[in-house]
Amino acid sequence: MSRTAHKLAALTVLAALGACDKPGGDPARQYGPNPYLPEPKQFLLPPMSVPNAVGWTVGQTPSTSAGLKVQALATGLLHPRTVYTLPNGDILVVEGNSPGTEPYRPKDFIQGKVKARAGAAAKGGNRITLIRDANGDGKPEMRTVFLDHLHSPYGVALVGDTLYVANTDAIMAYKYTTGATRISGPGVKLTDLPAGPIDHHWTKSLAVSSDGTKLYVGVGSNSNITENGFAAEDGRARIYEVDRQSGAMRPYATGTRNPTSLAVDPKTGRLFAVVNERDEIGPDLVPDYLTMVQEGAFYGWPYSYWGQHVDVRVHPQRPDLVAKAIKPDYGLSSHVAPLGLAFSQGETLSPVFANGVFVGEHGSWDRSPLNGYQVIFVPLVNGRPAGNPIPVVTGFLAPDHKSVRGRPVGVALDRTGALLIADDVGNVVWRVSAAGSGG
Prior knowledge:
This protein is mainly beta. It has a single domain (3-434), classed as TolB, C-terminal domain (Neuraminidase), CATH 2.120.10.30. Helix content is 8%, strand content 35%. It has three helices and 31 strands. The chain has helices spanning 3-20, 106-116, 319-322; strands at residues 31-32, 52-53, 63-64, 68-74, 80-85, 91-95, 127-132, 142-147, 155-159, 162-166, 170-175, 188-192, 204-208, 214-219, 238-243, 249-254, 259-264, 271-275, 287-292, 304-305, 309-310, 330-334, 338-343, 356-361, 374-381, 384-385, 390-394, 403-404, 408-413, 419-423, 428-434. Strands 3, 23, 24, 25, 26 and 27 form a six-stranded antiparallel beta sheet that branches. Strands 1-22-19-18-17 form a five-stranded antiparallel beta sheet, with no helix packed on it. Strand 25 and strand 26 form a beta hairpin. The longest helix is centred in the first third of the chain and has 18 residues, at 3-20. It is globular. Mean pLDDT is 91; it is low at 1-20.
């Protein structure tokens, strides 16, 4: 049988398996500190359910909760993933995608083809675009390429006059001048990061400690559940602390399968993360999560999930590590793929959003019914996530749930307190503000 025939046969088998799988339950059962955890399932090939990416038609926008309005701040971008507001109000949009690797196993090829239907294979700009909206009305006066020729960039952070960019393989440092519209210098490497040749989870999230002396960087695993071998996981699935002066790097927390966004609480200085958990054991396993990251903690991957729930697929087992695994603070339900995290800033949007975090849920690719595809707000009580999530921006999925107009990724607040959302399928940055505001 030819290679093409093998691929087609595998896709046929996958479609058949997906058609006979039982749908998932109510995601609401899996939000909060004690999510519902059913018995795991085993699959030869896991079912996949991916909507077709169609983009936005002229005049279409997402929907917002009551009292808010949404407008396109920038369109025609190249796979925008991260948004970041500089102190002078300029907005940086990181445009990037996977550097591309050869599929390690037949299943990788199949998953890649299926995910591509939802826009995952779109070309990334490998650049950062600057948007200037000086009067805060949501209608930018300037848009320019700020920094280009990057290598699958994702995280970005400014400390003083140094801009840090987390490429997939290294953190780079660039000299920044307030108000600059272009950085043309080559930059200096601060430290290498785990990357190829597989680079399964290529995104490297970035945050700055409250005193500005340290960077935190999230590095995802090189597989779903070590099927590429333990050697491929060396240095992966963890959050690192990086000394900003020397580049020295040490593990801050481990067992975090894919920590896709990091943020420091401006009130407490504590580090928070959203983490994408493992797949292929059912539509309701394992819940992705939001957590205040405990220094030195082990969060289970790959040996267990949500504390001491053992993943029997992993060999050899490590009961000693499972015994140390801690539970995350707050479940986000299964397969929502949280990729954005930002703390609210008072009542600028609404008193409802005065104290908590916004989370961008990119959306499921292996769950039926589909899950995620929205931006939610999670309240904080005494510095920890608590209570029910509140949908803030929806409508990324078409009403029939067979096509997707956009997928939210990174979130941030602009200098006026408006919520910014990177949409890597619509190639848009959306701006959400109070309905009665001028901008």
